[in-house]
Each structure stands twice: as C-alpha cells, then as structure tokens.
Amino acid sequence: MAEGYDISVTELDEETCWRLLSRAGFGRVGLVDSNDELVVLPVNAGVHQRRVVFRTAAGTSLASRGDGAMVAFEADHTDQVAESGWSVVVRGRLWDVTDEPVAAEWNDFAVHPWAPPPRDRWMVIQPIRVTGRTVERHRRLPAGARVSYMPPD
Structure pTM? Predict the structure, then answer.
C-alpha cells in the first residue's frame, strides 16, 4: 500500500457492467484466428439487449470467426489524474448476423466504425460470462483537509 493512499478494487455486478459497456463505444475483441494465433483487435461497439454488437468487413479475422467461436470483449476507462478506472470483460460466442432479420434493425444503431469502409458485416457476441471491476486510489487526509483537483504547477 502506498504511503498516504488507500487502493480499493471492487468487483462489479452484472447490471453495472452492462451500464458501463453501453456507454464505452470502444473495446477490444480477443480471439484465436484461423492460424491458431491469439489476436486482440480494436472495435467500435455498442450494446443491444445485453449483447455486444459491432461491424467489421468481410474477409477479416473477426468475420471469419463469426460461426460461434469463443471470444472475449474488453472495454475500460481510466482517469490518469485520479489513478482510477474500470474494466469489463464479456466472454461469449461470436456470430455473424448480417443476413438475419435483426441486423436490418441495426442500420440506425449507433455503432460508427473508425476504420475505413466497407464495414458491412454485423457481428454479435452472445455473452456467457460478464465480469468487471473498478480500481480506485484514495488519498488519506486529516479530517477537514481540502485538496484542489488540479495541483498547481
């Protein structure tokens, strides 16, 4: 434990995990590719009915594994000043649902890939397990002490 600080790690309940994921907008998908190598790829993603949804291009590693392959999706947020943050991991099966009727509903869904087009394949991670945690650092101060958020230069 650092002098003058307390550090807490808190496991998050599933409801909180989904709430955090729904506002993240970006994360990483970990999978074993067709060469049997572990790959972690960034994606712009959203949450729809407790499933992670994102787009990719035909012929990509992600599209080729959309047959129910096991994947992990991780999203997080850090606050460098507060030395705190959260991380959520969704483990589940990856499905290409582009040709299913549900994908037609998602054309207006707010998942806007940063990568250049075309991103014409809709992918869904059907969750099996969702876990998350926060890490927070708290300064120990005497009673009544006040500290500015941004220390002076």
Answer: 0.81
